[in-house]
Amino acid sequence: MPVQLERQTKVLTGNGAAAYAAMLCRPDVVAAYPITPQSEVIEQLAKFHADGVLDCQYVTVEGENSAQNVVCAATMAGGRAFTATSSYGLVYMYDAMFNTAGYRAPVVMINVNREPPGIHAVCSGQQDMISVRDTGWVQLIVEDCQEIMDTTIMAFRLAEDYDVQLPVIVNYDGYYLSFLAESVCIPGSGEVDQYLEVLKGQPPRPRLMPGDPMGCGSHGIGMGYVELRKKHMAAMERVKTKIDEIDEEFRGAFGRGYGGQIEEYRTEDADIVLVTSGSAVGTARTMIDAKRDEGIKVGLVKLRLFRPFPTERLCQALKGKKAIGVLDRSICFGWNCGPLYMETRALTPEIGVVPMLSFIDGLANMDITQEHIGRMIDDIQGASEGRPYQEVTWLP
Amino acid sequence: MAEQRKRQPKVCDYYQNEDQFSPGVAFCSGCTLELNLRFISRVLGKDIIFVGTPSCSAPVLHGQNVAAWHRHAYYACTMTGVASSASGLTRYYQQAGIDATVVCHTGDGCAQDVGFQTLSGAAERNEKMIYITYDNEGYMNTGIQQSSATPYGASTSTTPVGRAARGGKPTSSKNMPLVMAMHDIPYVATATLSHLEDYARKLVKAKEWAKEGFAYLHVFCPCVVGWKIPTDSSIQVCRDAVKTNYFPLWEMEEGTCRITHPVKEPRPVSELTATVGKFKHMNDEGLAVLQGQVDQRFKVLQALCGASGSQ
User: Fold this and answer.
1) With contacts defined as CB-CB under 8 Å, which chain A residues touch B70?
2) Which residues of chain B fall below pLDDT 50?
3) What's the pTM value of the predicted model, to 2 decimals?
4) Complex ipTM above 0.90?
């Protein structure tokens, strides 16, 4: 009989919320390697396992590359699997991440955003998630501890959906969220079981079983390769509407929702819009209100889905605006701007040619302050009024 | 265990089992790897799950698009992920209560070089699986480059013999079976294809031990093309490797080490190297170094057998 837990409210860190969520989803296999600032996630899961709250195989691997291979294979055998990492660990599992995505293995992974190797920064930053953009994984990024809890549960629902069958990363900013303690509502295990129950009614996934001659990872050459790639791409596209639906379902079941692919804040009557993601969203929301009080008609788009890129919903939100700013916590080599900015700019044919401004802030634990965001909003407003503007601004 | 050994079938019995591989697979003429794969399959049975990686065995094990050349369940992964993928499979089967034997099958390059960390990690965790290294002493599939299994003096495409460099590979090979024996896993053995009864016994033991922990087999598998030997001589080369103590046959079971095929009067290693093209350039001086390494390793093995309470 699986362990039953009542709904409760507790003060949890972001890492604690991720661990509780993973435990509630009852993975068969957990494999992970410690790294700052993720370690608390896997320590908490180890404790759940040791206390008998989590009935799973807990694999203490010797590196992240192995962690990724363990969870991928466990999923291909038919299990539910979970891992968590950050930064150096994420890039160390790079080759295996292609495997997991290529096998359409519905692994769920937490990535606690941290600057990647090069300039040794044990600091927050979203460059790590950007570096695995094209591995074929679904990527979500969230704002606070409650959203970490809820989105991790939704990630299992999404990954294992018959129409999706893709691995999912849930990203959250290291330090700002990993160690931030907030009051978090922890759903009861029965509620989560019921929420995920729908997955059991789906047609079964193919699984690697003894005595069953199935090849997993066969050579795909020529058209065989093209076919699988095209199907993977189609599944990726289906994620967009699926995450909106799943978010609604979640709201129905738990009373909390996040808007699916994106969340819009005061955009409807806005002239200008700021687009951003992660822990900076809360600060941005405060500043939107403050600038509204000053008479600037500014709105905010919080990007939740990074891969696939929510093009349609973003176009809807941004069309007709007079100027757009995008705040990145990472950089895009080769385009001399922020990565989210570059991707948003690619929507120009749909949303029209308006001033677009790239803001790079919050690298390596530099705080994205209210004052910074105020300056950004002023710059966007100026550009909308025809004043000269700088396309890319590094803050502070 | 003793009683089980008495009832052990002979190799000819295993050949009554159905071959799970199709005829006419794409190996080179005289390839020992093909024999190795078919033999493992016949001894361990059709229900084993192979885990493998890009290598000579890949086209056959992986299959291409929808065409496969065998009837085993098979999992392909990166060279860095064999033992870890197998860990994922075996852990899930344990969690779900499914009885399964997971068998990793990789070349020496994967096992000892790029996949070594994950192999060592899985062994340390004592994962319930069999790991079989087919050792052809280099990266044969990618064009005969040196690996950490390439012996002293051997000529490969990355340790070529040229006008300036006459010596081939300047360092000796990694003593991989001994490295694995030092992991305190329940079963480690060496085997080769000239001694199939010995090999079959070790496979059966490995399958039993894999129910409790990690079993490692290191199989000497000459490569006809890479070693520059005639296509009809690969088994003879295996035999010579055993006769010269270049590749002694031994096993370590629960810490007790034993030579399973003692050679009364070992032949000089030059009798092996003389028949193998990759050693042809070696002079007496080089051969003396190689002989010294072979002797030294054998002494260590004997000491290990003595110290662990066996002969």
Assistant:
1) 213
2) none
3) 0.96
4) yes
Angstrom distance (rounded) from CA A53 to CA A31: 17
pLDDT 10s digits, B112-126: 999 999 999 999 999
Q: Which of A177, A173, A122, A143 is closest to A330 using CA atoms?
A: A173
Q: Do B88 and A56 touch (CB under 8 A)?
A: no
The minimum CA-CA distance between A213 and chain B, rounded to whole Å, is 4
Domain covering B2-307, topology:
Rossmann fold (3.40.50)
Query: Could you state, in chain order, the average pLDDT of each consecutive group of 10 residues for chain A (396 residues)?
Result: 93 98 98 98 98 98 98 98 98 97 97 94 95 97 98 98 98 98 98 97 95 86 90 98 98 98 98 98 98 98 98 98 98 97 97 97 97 98 98 96
Residues 6+ apart with CB under 8 A from A385: none
User: Is residue A204 exposed (0-12), middle (13-18) or buried (19+ Cβ within 10 Å)?
Assistant: exposed
CATH architecture, domain A263-394? 3-Layer(aba) Sandwich (3.40)
Residues 67 to 96 of B: which have CB under 8 A from any A CB? 68, 70-78, 80-81, 83-89, 91-96
- The fold for domain A8-206+214-254 equals Rossmann fold (3.40.50)
Residue B65 to residue A221, Cβ atoms within 8 A = yes
Chain A closest CA to B30's CA: distance in Å?
Answer: 25
- The residue ranges of every structural domain in chain B are 2-307
